[in-house]
Amino acid sequence: MNSVTSTVRDDLSALIHPYTNLALHRETGPFVITRGEGIRVFDDRGSAYIEAMSGLWSAALGFSEKRLADAAMAQFNQLPYYHTFSHKTNAPAAALAAKLAELAPGDLNHVFFTNSGSEANDSVVKLVWYVNNARGKPAKKKFISRQQAYHGTTVASASLTGIPSIHRDFDLPAIPVHHLTCPNYYRLGKPGESQEAFSLRLAEELERHILVEGPETIAAFIGEPVIAAGGVLPPPKGYWSAIQAVCKRYDILLVIDEIVTGFGRLGTMFGSELYGIQPDILVLSKQLTSSYLPLAALLVSDALHDVLVSQSERLGAFVHGLTATGHPVATAVALENIRIIEERDLVGHVQRLAPVFQERLQAFADHPLVGDVRGVGLMGGIELVADKARKQPFSQPGILGSYVFRQAHKHGLIVRAIYDTIAFCPPLITTQDDVDAIFEAFGKTLHDATEWAHSQGLI
Ligand code: PMP
Q1: 142 CA → ligand 1 middle, Å
Q2: N or C: the chain end with fewer CB closer than 10 Å?
Q3: Atom in ligand 1 nearest the alpha carbon of residue 283
């Protein structure tokens, strides 16, 4: 256990941690992070770690961007809080909405703010239901999502999430949602099946499902351009164009969750651009503020916004919103964050750095423990397996992954273990030298993991 500082004592006595084994936490105590500098964070003993996950896929500008702190402070001094209910507005919220409308693809010209990605996706569900009632289609309410999708942890967004552990014993899903096959080519592509054929098979599955359920009952399809928390899964070739065509055919709204992929992660401002997707609703968060303050946004098309306005003509106020919707400090930080991304051409930087990053990632493909290496832009995943030739996972999934997660700390590296897939998602400000440092530390970690796996009889 860490030295018993007051942080450790207070944490152990009072703090409930998300995504943490709460029983184990009582034995191990917390890992205290005290400060950040560039792409590194430091613990309470002064040890440095390269944050190769940008925190939770989110700190685009790293952990010490003073301009974001200054933007927050200036806004705190001007107007620290006001709401946007009942016609009130504030300058940063309005300016950020206009900026997002300008950046977003197509006619996604109208923006609603929440504090978190989960709330944004819950808002999507309500909004879609509301719109379909207004359009005289009250039966059109079901959502289609995918197995392994991650859309959040609040009641509706966790229902959209397609990861069984997130539903178990929480009595979820709690909304009508169907999770179709995950676009995981490595695991679910058939022998000899091309990526394109796999994509068509999944689009056919979607169409069949819609026809069985009745198109008049299916409201929307939701997906991340690249599944992130569900295992770093870039889509197989042709996937999004095939899925999009089916949605169009049956008047099914396409909700694209770019909470991870937004703002340059894939080398384009949005993943939708990379994959030729035209969403009806786009959801953003994380890199929107580099997570320096909580903020998320959902953008809707002109057509959907027209329906919202017509509902108000009928019903009066649009009665949805949060105390902090359009918070002036969070939106001021987002504006400055986007300004920096543009000024420093970080999207171009990712485009230039991605080939180097992906090459370093692929260099692990021949390692005997590595079953699959996948990635796009500054995002990557390395899936560890018990038997490479047979793609056989470990009999106890996640044991080796969590060893790698812990051992990486010893080599000054923070990665994420999604069961046995090791995820990388470093800040957009990462340099080529940093990429070298990340994979050097990971190479040492994997070396240790191989010895440990032998010693434990895992391989
Ligand atoms: N969607 C995606 C794609 C995400 O990765 C996440 C968070 N990891 C969320 C939604 C939920 O966002 P939040 O944790 O801010 O509620």
Answers
A1: 21
A2: N
A3: 1
Nearest to 375 by CA among 365, 366, 367, 385: 365
> 42 and 36 in contact (C-beta within 8 Å)?
yes
- Atom number of ligand 1 nearest to Cα 285: 15
For ligand 1, say whether the CB of 331 is within 6 Å of any of its atoms: no
Q: For residue 158, how far is its CA from the centre of ligand 1 (angstroms)?
A: 10
Three-state SS for 31? coil
* pLDDT, tens digit, 9 for 90 and up, residues 123-144: 999 999 999 999 999 999 999 9
Percent of the chain at pLDDT exceeding 70: 99
> Residue with the nearest Cα to atom 12 of ligand 1?
117
> Does 51 contact ligand 1 (Cβ within 6 A)?
no
Ligand 1 pocket member 150 (CB < 6 A): yes
455 Cα–ligand 1 center, Å: 37
With 60 as the cut, is the pLDDT of residue 2 above it? no
Inter-residue contact 245 to 331 (CB < 8 Å): no
Cα-to-centroid distance, 118 and ligand 1 (Å): 6
pLDDT at 193 over 70: yes
Q: Over the stretch 61-120, which tens digit does the pLDDT of each residue have?
A: 999 999 999 999 999 999 999 999 999 999 999 999 999 999 999 999 999 999 999 999
Torsion of CA 280, 286, 289, 293, to 10 degrees: 120
Dihedral sign of CA atoms 181, 186, 188, 193 in order: positive
Q: Reduced to 3 states, what is the DSSP secondary structure of residue 193? A: coil
CA of 218 to the centre of ligand 1 (A): 23
Residue 236 has pLDDT above 50, yes or no: yes
Residue 365 CA to residue 383 CA, distance in Å, equals: 9
Model confidence pLDDT, tens digit, residues 262-295: 999 999 999 999 999 999 999 999 999 999 999 9
For the CA of 261, the closest atom of ligand 1 is: 3
Task: State in Å: Cα 441 to ligand 1 middle.
Answer: 27
Task: List, in order of start, the domains of the chain with CATH numbers.
Answer: 31-64+345-455 (3.90.1150.10), 68-343 (3.40.640.10)
